[in-house]
User: What shape does this take?
Amino acid sequence: MPLSIGALTVLLSWVTVDLRTVTL
Assistant: This one.
């Protein structure tokens, strides 16, 4: 299960970065 959680966290981090880049 930890692997799935890690993947979700990574995906969320990528999404947040994308949103930040778009806003900037």
